[in-house]
Amino acid sequence: MTTNFEDLRQSGNWASYLGQLGWLVEETETQKVKIFIRKLPLVGSVAKIQRPSVIPPVEEVDEIAKKHRALFVKLEPALLSPPSSLLSDFEADAWPLSPTRTIHVDLAPSEEEIFEKFSKDARYSVRRAERNRVSTQLFSSLAPSDQRLEEFYKLLSETGRRKRFWVAPFVDLKAKTEAFKDKSALIFAYHNTEVVAGALILFHDQVAYYHHAASNLEGRKLLAPYLVVWETIKLAKKRGCHTLDLEGIYDPRYKIYKRFRKIGIFKKKFGGKEIEYPGSFIKYYNPIVRLVFKLTPMCK
Length: 300
What we know:
Radius of gyration: 20 Å
Number of strands: 13
CATH topology of the largest domain: Aminopeptidase
CATH architecture of the largest domain: 3-Layer(aba) Sandwich
Oligomer: single chain
């Protein structure tokens, strides 16, 4: 399986997406690692470095942090085994912004070979969904004003309420589709004329990201989410991708991921390889902010 690729969160498209939401972007001078800065009224800013393939020199990070009066910088490396010395200026943080553990599905084999690597339950569920007359439809390069984007958001919000996870405002979803344009696709699963499941797929550097997924109770009953993943795999292969990133599973290192146990069980059924990132790290530039974070329960 190919592992040498730039992560989605270091892409120009991701920078465009965050830019629409008010984030500034800086790049370190040597490795051109993107640092995203969010200004805060009166107090300065906060900054994040998501999934860089190299750890930028701390001197360059400090310079950018000082320029923007950053209270802290969060770092979440894409390196699978970074030398501890590279992270010596940062401390472990209990509040990740990006998935710290995920599943990568190798798309190099044929569709038949990939399908045979699914668990018995997943193969049955895909076929059962088809027998249940669940159909799928692909929509590419959606405009932010497209009504289908609103349909997907309603489904995503319903999923969030049912599974008790936070869903970003609709403007966030619109910004992503605007930034990624033809590097995005929406897959809907229908039963009769009702949308019962769907997924937003983002593409970067020959990797497909199963970025947002949603379903209603009827879709779950019909096993539609299994068919959506299978259609995602077929789409990703057609677009020349070598890997499908299922974007996050349960990670026992972080308490905030406890609610994702069942999601991880579902994603592990598709024959992929479990990937564990080093985690989330932080460097504080304000001692008061550091103390507040240490005393806040959600950050423990």
